[in-house]
Amino acid sequence: MQEGMSMPLKATTRFAAVIATATVGFALAAVPATAAAQGDALPKKVSRNVTVDGVYRHLIAFQRLADRNGRTRVASSAGHQQSATYIADKVRAAGFDVTIHEFPFIYFVPQVETLTADGRSVPTHMFTYSKSTPAGGLTAPLVPVPVDDSPGCEAADYTGVNVTGKIALIKRGTCSFAQKQQVASEAGAIATVIYNNVPDSAPLAGTLSDPANARVPTVGVTLAEGEALAAKPPASVTINAQATEEPRRSFNVIAQTKTGRKDNVVMAGAHLDSVESGPGINDNGSGSATLLETALQLGGSPKVNNAVRFGWWSAEEFGLVGSTQYVRSLSFEQQLDIALYLNFDMVGSPNAAYFVFDGDNSDNVGAGPGPLGSAAIESALQARFRTAGVQTEGTDFDSRSDYAEFVAQGIPAGGTFTGAEKIKTAAQAAKWGGQANVAYDKCYHQACDNLYNINRTALGKQATAISYVVAAYGISTEDVNGVPPRPQRAQARSAAKAFAAPATYDHDPTS
Prior knowledge:
alpha/beta; 2 domains; Aminopeptidase; Glucose Oxidase, domain 1; five-stranded mixed beta sheet; 15 strands
């Protein structure tokens, strides 16, 4: 008996037995894990038709739109606006209901970002929404903050550590970058340098999420540089960091099928914007193009039980602004209509990994499991990669992409990722191919993130898995949230009505 169904006690056992008999086939084959209930003809058809050539054609379009607009598709730029129009026109022509969700954001682009330690230049990135230094920079002693399970996250971390009028050196981990620089500021620091907690190929690039969070100039460096500075703190460090910061507007593109339940929507998203310094073809033209081709092959009126909604987010590179604004614009009931959210950010990395978001926290790292139902999404994606002979690894819900606000609101989430600036291990290279001790994407957030930066083999495997799972959840989300496909609900109702007929029952079962 489904929760909330009211039945006379003496009918309960008999009714439950019939429902169990009627639905056991569905329970064994729920989509994606149990696709046989309605057959997996649609997911197979969509994934077969979503080809790497089809996805790559959209990437060519994004590259050309960037090239003719200053070689960037950063949010609010002509390159982004034309990319979004390209997508909106395509999905509208395919029969989707299309809406444009406009929002304000603070545009922030560093103009100067340098760090010198005792005269030595150290590669660095200015964090998005950081305070700027005075012209010419600021110079002060560098003080390492002790490393523990939550370095620099609490006032107690500064007990016995004098950072007044000095620059705090803090290791990444546990709390947000915004919190680290706020706590450092409250302890008297005039700036912060945050270094990575994993091997990387480029200086740590982070965001404070909101200009209102900024307290002091904050820059990032690699793990190796941070550890070297901590081991032998220089007598003086100079940080010179200034940025352009101004209010602007951008927009998300939302497309939903005309068919399927509107109260159990399957949502898939990818950010469309790039950083200012490049065209962003892997980050994240790859995810956007894959979802666009999936939408086009699915069509605006597919034979699905659940409506499928696609979101192409903007201003992700400024702190997940577009997706966050979208989710927060929905009422609780509207959020409740979203059965699950799938996120695809960077799925064509040149030295590709095959990561699936760790919905059940089986890897036991970082932020823990996703909302209830996320483990099922992880399993569904893993199964599709196994079909292709690909062994995946879990990756943490670390709030670095657009799933963050969905997860924060309790919406089951998942997705795939081929890696960014972190380093591929020897074991991963043996498993997946590629180069050990090299970044998954050595052009991450750089001008060289262009068409030549795409691994077509990885992109093709991702597109096949992604398109199958998106279409499959259009059939049923039962493994995620317990909502069965329409034929199963119809059988349950028919069985309930059959047992409501005897005169001994004084009320109809509710459904």
